[in-house]
Amino acid sequence: YRQLEFGDTPGILEAGVAGTQREQIARQLATEADLLLLVVDNDLRQSEYEPLQRLAEIGKRSLLVFNKTDLYTEADVEKILARLRQRLRGFIAASDVVPIAAAPQSVRLEGGELFQPEPEIMPLIKRLAAILRSEGEDLVADNILLQSQRLGEEARNLIDGQRRREAQKVVERFQWIGAGVISITPLPVVDLLATAAVNAQMVVEIGRIYGCELNMERGRELALSLGKTLASLGIVKGAIQLLTTALHLNVATLLVGKAIQGVTAAYLTRIAGKSFIEYFRNDQDWGDGGITEVVQRQFQLSRRDEFIKDFIAQAIAKVVKPLTDAPNSETEIEQEYPSQEH
Questions:
Q1: Is residue 47 in a domain?
Q2: Taking a C-beta distance cutoff of 8 angstroms, is the pair 124, 98 a contact?
Q3: How many whole angstroms from its chain centre is CA 169?
Q4: Within a domain: residue 7?
Q5: Which DSSP letter does residue 165 get?
Q6: What number of H helices and E strands is found in the chain?
Q7: pTM of the prediction?
Q8: Domain-located, residue 153
């Protein structure tokens, strides 16, 4: 014999912050139960129907208990039961919609005395007994499987988050390495930035984080493919325009000209790196929209004002400032902005 434990959860429609917290507790407890009893006292509201449907869809065995039937006429009880069974058809059987009166209201008799009717819960007891007799072991097994799946999903999410953080560190490292190199040795044609910004070693390292061992040849193939995509979509020119405008708000004009290729390279490296993170997260698959859709989405995400503000601040510290500290930079700056003594 197994011991039966009944747990009463908070409601799912309580108002306020405290109500929201209690609702979260209720939903958590509901997913952990072997058998779920959802108690209503009338027809289902949409806010009650949706959570019940979600629980049923993930395999949670459920009963709907129609309580307070003592407040209705017998005809009204039958009408409400019919509506409930109709609405729940497909994921809760008609026999699992059970009417009860757990705490009937007292009735005043003709002599003025109050009569307290007995609770009418026998339909629920009989249905529970039938379910436990025929499905008891399956209920426990199904719930163990469901909890294992939930824990497995939580574990996968934790691993995915850890991998993403590690991959982002790789992207940040390579974006500023590339920026420094290109700032010192600018490219003759800006379109070459697309290819130069996508480092094959970065691709290999991101792949390794996601359990994909790539050789350098494969890394170069992937890098070249994404570099061509950046160029063909016009993202290189779009990035230069975007970053030039942003830099002009913070940096002298001469320095913008000197730093723009390096800053743009870092920006493109970030877009490429983020795109490859999505590629490896999806088991080396670009998805239905292909590489173009992934790259365009990352470009749009990288154009947000909050990101640009933070990126420019980092670019000034990591690219522009080293240029001002380089030999002859002070003379060039003075020529662009002569002091009053001259």
A1: yes
A2: yes
A3: 20
A4: no
A5: H
A6: 13, 5
A7: 0.53
A8: no
